[in-house]
Amino acid sequence: MIDVRLSVMNRLLEAGEKGEGVILYPHIGADGDALGSSLALLLVLKKINVNAWLLLDEPISPKLNFMPHWQDAFVFVDSEAEKWQKEQTIALAVDCADSDRTGRRRVIFDEAVCQMALDHHVSSGESKNLRFIDAQAAATAEIIADMISDLEKHLQIELMDRDIASLLMTALVSDTGRFVYSNTTSRSFRTAAWLMEYEPDLRLITYQLFDLSSQVRLRLTGRIFTDVEFCYDGKLAIAIVDQKLLDEYNATEHDIEGIVSQMRNVAGVEVSFVFRQLSDGSVKVNIRSSDGFNASEFARGYGGGGHPKAAGMTLKNADLQQTAEMLRDAAGRYL
Prior knowledge:
inorganic pyrophosphatase (n-terminal core), Diaminopimelate Epimerase, Chain A, domain 1, about 40% helix, 12 strands
């Protein structure tokens, strides 16, 4: 498996030598790990003279704009597809491995001469060339950190700096839940120890990711919690968030981040679902679970994926209420 990671590294070095363009594709709805890992890799690639760009499907969540160099990311515009295709030789998916997780950018990703992926999620997808999946990693940040270490040894130069360390620490803290989720391992702490040598502001990172709130978010959360439905003897918790509710509180989708995890923390709840109707008519589903419910396995049955305790999917052209009822029944059978 390490051989594949080294192959990805060598191909990126080759891109620098040949002057080829590399576009990084974090998954749609980029979270702390996807964005932090992608930005860190972007900075490293620029240091080794690789022509690289970070392309997002949507604007960065305001919750993540404390991250260094977040302004270096581009947001994809349909009319610019041809321009990006001309720049790109290598399409590199980060924190995802399937092109359908790239959203609207898929029209560019699928046209790349070389497609690669760096991810830690179990997936059934494929990339045409190099696909490095390390399911033992708590976050893609651990994979990127290992690759930076490989590059430093290979090139005999120091690439890590405070900004890169801050980005990777944000990614690692995000996906391990401040190092308390069950995916946290000794490797996570070894990676964190190395990053701390470069003095990232860990207090700021944890505050921005987990503690910072707003009046809108506070009031919306209270309303959603009031309406949560508990099923199957309290083992399943469901929240349905439609656009009317968001408009009532002048809120955005970013204001419901983290709510699904708080629902899962209720005593007796084994799995929680949050359903959200998107503007394109699809329904986004976030899942958090305990040991008795494999969220990733469940989500893969509907074209999604993730971790055993944190997963999700997006169902296109779906009715919000009908989707919630269908998955409620399916989750009940699974339980």
